[in-house]
Amino acid sequence: LGVCVCVSKNVYKVDDELEMTMVCHRPEGLEQLEAQTNFTKRELQVLYRGFKNECPSGVVNEETFKHIYAQFFPHGDASNYAHYLFNAFDSAHNGSIKFEDFVMGLSILLRGSVREKLQWTFNLYDINRDGYINKEEMTEIVRAIYDMMGKYTYPALKGDVPKQHVDAFFQKMDKNKDGVVTLEEFILACQEDENMMRSLQLFENVL
User: Fold this and answer.
1) 61 φ, ψ to 5°?
2) Are strands 59-61 and 96-98 parallel, antiparallel or unpaired?
3) pLDDT by residue (tens digit) across 135-147?
4) What is the gyration radius of the CA atoms in the chain, in angstroms?
5) Cα separation of 137 and 162, whole Å?
6) Which of 7, 21, 32, 106 has the greatest number of C-beta atoms within 10 Å?
C-alpha cells in the first residue's frame, strides 16, 4: 500500500526488529481475518507481507495514502478522491488505516456480493455519515473522480458536467423525491440501471 514511515527514527537495522515490536501495530490473527473476509489464509499472508513491506508501522495515515494514490493517476489530481476513499477505509474514524481495515474493505470491493459492494460505495458517498446521500455529497465525489482521471482522459470535459451527471443519477435514485437518497434507494437504483452497475466495475479498476 505504499511507503509508510514508522515511528522509529533508528537507522541501525540491528535494533529495528526490537523497536518495531514495541511501537508498531500488529494485526489480529490471520485465522480470524480469514473467517471475516473472502480471502484465503495464503492470500492474507501475501497481502500482509506486501502491506508490512511498504508500511512498516502497520498503519497508514491520510497524507501517505494520498501520496501513494497520486502515483497511479499522474495526469490528474487524486487528492480529493483519495481523501474520501481513505475515510471509507478508516472504519474506526481515527485518522489511520490498519491492515484489518484495508483487507476488510478490499475483500468487499473485490469479492463481496453486489449488495455488499453497493453498501460500501454508499458509505463512500455518504460523506457526513448521516445515513443519507444528498446532491452536494454526490457532486463532491463525482467531481473528485473527474479531477483524478485528469484532462487526458476527459479532454472536452466542462465544469458543469459532474453536476449534470449527478442530477441525472439523483433523479433515478431519489424515488420519493425528498432530496436525499437512502441506502435502499441507492441499491435499488443501481440494480435497475446497467450503467450504474458498470460504474462499480470501474470503481474496482480505480482501486
Assistant:
1) -95, 175
2) antiparallel
3) 999 999 988 988 8
4) 19
5) 12
6) 106
Return d(Cα 65, Cα 186) in angstroms, integer: 28
Of the candidates 111, 69, 104, the residue with the CA atom closest to the CA atom of residue 90: 104
Check if the beta carbon of residue 38 is closer than 8 Å to that of residue 93. Answer: no
Burial 21-51 (b: 16+ CB within 10 A, else e): eeebeebeebeebbeebebeeebbeebbeeb
Which residues are CB-neighbours of 52 under 8 A, at least 6 positions away? 58, 99
The per-residue pLDDT for range 86-123, each reduced to its tens digit, is: 999 998 899 999 999 999 999 999 999 989 999 999 99
pLDDT in tens, 69-80: 888 888 889 999
| Terminal-to-terminal C-alpha distance of the chain | 11
Beta carbons of 112 and 120 less than 8 angstroms apart: yes
Task: State the DSSP string of the chain.
Answer: ------S-----HHHHHHHHHHHS--PPPHHHHHHHSSS-HHHHHHHHHHHHHH-TTSEEEHHHHHHHHHTT-TTS--HHHHHHHHHHH-TT-SSEEEHHHHHHHHHHHHHS-HHHHHHHHHHHH-TT-SS-EEHHHHHHHHHHHHHHH-TTT-TT--TTHHHHHHHHHHHHH-TT-SSEE-HHHHHHHHHH-HHHHHHHHHHHHH-
Q: Which amino acid is it at 39?
A: F
How high is the pLDDT of residue 46?
92
Note the residue count of the chain. Answer: 207
